[in-house]
Structures
1.
Amino acid sequence: MRVEGPIKVDRKTKRLANRLTSGDIAVINHIDIDEVAANSLVEGKIKLVINAAPSISGRYPNKGPGILTEKNILIIDNVGEKLFHELKEGQIIEVIDGKIYRDGILVGQGEVLDRAVVSEKLKKAYENLSVELDRFIDNTIDYAKKEKGFILGEVEIPVVKTKYKNRHVLIVVRGQDYKQDLSTILSYIEEMKPILVGVDGGADALLEFGYTPDVIVGDMDSVSDEALRQASEIIVHAYTDGRAPGLKRVQDLGLDAIVFPAPGTSEDIAMLIAYEYKAELIVALGTHSNMIDFLEKGRKGMASTFLVRLKIGAKLIDAKGVNLLYRSKLKIKYVWALIATALFPVIILASLSPSVQQFVHLMQLKFKLLLQM
């Protein structure tokens, strides 16, 4: 295996994905590559991934490495922090069987992860899943006890200008299969005209489909400047102590924002705001709702998500995976029925035309003569 090309380097994979061009080698520092990150790398049409951290730690069966290797993108794994800092963006490197060369000099090496190796590592990770599940449940319960004030009114909901009352609200998160799910509910968006809420990169997902986000909620680490400029309202998710690193970015763009200090995830507070301001229905798309999702986000439990969903109850419809529920296929019998329906009035009108009648009579005579012969 030999690969040569320019490198793009970033500690945050989702930030790196925005800069990738076809033929690049992606250099990341991402333990347990998740599904969303892997798909963003695939979309960048890269040649190779070099990861400073273990792509599969074995804690749980993360899907990212499998997605990459299925697309014939190999991973040079666990090359270490030192090499990650030595490699600079734009440099041309050569990788031969896991060994990394720059200007003909060996600078580091890692384990080559192909389909077979990834499959074996994931098999071992599945064996560890029950242990990780025990930890996850314990952490969720512990944090739920500490964070129950989140849904009991102890966390102050900020005053917003968006009018949620008696409206449908669509909350879009750039999670698993978000594009397919969004494509499936386009008719719902057109018919119901819901308030469109993008959680960080979910705002760019809306733009991608031709919709302008009404509200953007998040820590602002993966949303584009374009989306921020187009949104009607921006809510920056802050730590419970009030620190809001994402606020500076918004202010640097000359935009106003509301700061919401709260535990949990940004999608949790997006749902809670919609609920508290009397939304009629909340539709969540691409959200994180299971153990694997949360482990891929680096969270040890899902206390706030559990509490919020417990509170908003029947007002929430989770559209994650809705594309699998119904897949419309155009059947050939419907095509023939459509053609017949379209031709029917044409045939009726034609039969009433004197010239067409003469033509038909002429053809009948010719057929009779042919048959007599």
Note: The chain has a mean pLDDT of 86.
2.
Amino acid sequence: MYRDMAILFAFAFVYALVAGRLERTPVAGALVFAAFGLAVGPEVLNWFALDVHARSLRTLAELTLALVLFTDAANADLRVLRISYAIPERLLLIGLPLTILLGTAIAALLFPAFGMTESALLATMLAPTDAALGKAVVVNPSVPARIREGLNVESGLNDGICVPILLVLLALAAEPVDGAGSWELVLHHFAQEIGIGLAVGAGLAAAGVWALRLSADQGWSSATWRQLPAVALAFTTFAAAQALGGSGFIACFAGGVVAGGMARHRERKHELLLSAEGAGDLFGLLTWVLFGAAVIGQALGRLTWEIATYAVLSLTVIRMGPVWLAMAGTDLGGDGKLFLGWFGPRGLASVVFAIIVLDANLPASDVLTATVAWTVILSILAHGLTASPLTEAFARRIGTTQVPVP
């Protein structure tokens, strides 16, 4: 265990020294993390003695997702939904459901051994997007703000929307139900998890922000300790909801939305969330490394034409088709719709979902996680290499004029 810890944190230290330099290249950090994990994992150097079903691996994945959900929701600029709502709202309310439905249908065709639940699980695991893998798009001022913010808000919120869908599908896959009584029991459990999660998340976030305001007004806190509250609040929210029988993920998502909405000033919010974002980056790094060691290593030997086909379709037709339909009726031209559709990278949320599903020991877990692994690998390469050149080409094509979207 201590050898594994030494390797992981030594790698984190070395990467931190060159992170800024690497961020200016097409090489995504996720690619470096996953490749390192594969190299030191059982399939290559065998420096890690990993049990992919170990509880500690799932715990790390859960805490990573909890922190990411909280910070993404808190950081999401919800003013975009009020000022230029068409793009993020359509992506989330039309594009996301259509993506899951289309992904489910194609999975059922390509994997005949899957039931409808497993097909829907795969589609849901690969529905969330990760703006960090397309950073060149969301930070480039040459791209119209409404497109940048639309992709950013979509990425910040779609993983939280997918969580309850994943939870109910996992429950159905683990214990198939038939009959009205069984369905009623599953739905009651699902509603309980959602309800408790929402109540705990909103309640703790409101109380936490109020306490932070009081502390700041009274001058009780110090610069050193102001780095801790956001991380502590996210983990407290997750653990409290889980302990009370709710969904910690829903709680963190709801808590982040409430905390972000209650923030007095955007600059102040950014200052409070900075340490949480740093902790999220570290947890994400560790999760990517362990994903590379525990999942990608096994996935390399499980590549089939069905998995390869689904991975390609997930990044193209399954994503881009629903986005095109979702943007119907707006003033975005064909190039804008294609641009939005292409830049839906799959990243950390899909990785964490895959680890959770792998730990659930479903009959189809290995195929599900292998498909997610190959889709994420392809996404890292394809989106990482195309982000800068396609962004520059798109900016030249449309210029920087921003036409309001109704």
Note: The chain is about 75% helix and 0% strand.
3.
Amino acid sequence: MWTTRLLILGLVRWLQPVHGYDVLKELTSWNAEDWAKIKPGSVYHGLKKLTTDGCLEVVSTEQVDKRPARTSYRVTAKGETEFQQVLREKLWGIEPVVDPFFVAWSFAPVLGPREAAAMLRNRAALITAQMRQNLAWLDVADSGDPTAGSFIPGHVQEAMRLATDAMRLTVDWCERVAVRAENGELGFDDERGYSEETIEHWRRHIRTLPDPATLRSSLRRGVDEGE
């Protein structure tokens, strides 16, 4: 997974030579398991895979008493090339972010208007709690003293502000759409999600759609031609 490779390469590059255990501790302090879905086992597996791929090399392996051996790593020329390429590819490019909420939202009419409104207000409350936590961290953040317990690098603070702004917009959206759901403006039905008449119209419409393979081919051709 590119996220694991980039995070490991970036940290090893900054801290080299560095123990794999220290990489794990630093990523844990970043809460990477929450926002990057990187589990502890993935870090050690990633270090070994990057070494096998020639992107990292072992500097030394230390054995202290009966503790598990600790291996130190550094980035190779190949690893530096991959890091620079992936870093710029992800910073300069734009990729769709698939939030599980929006996948499930496709079938939100099944909930009916009342449950949909309750769900949206609950989502707003959960996000508001996250937003307040972000703001609390930002209130005490210190970007000038790396030794301070409240130290958060300036660029990380800006990312937190961006996330907070997105949360605020999401809360507003949830509250507004909850009202629309309650007022019956979204067309939700309490049983199937849509009325039988709407579903039948939907069936007829699907029959008029182009063949999926033909549509994909047309879309790819349009992208290649810059349409």
Note: The longest strand covers residues 56-62.
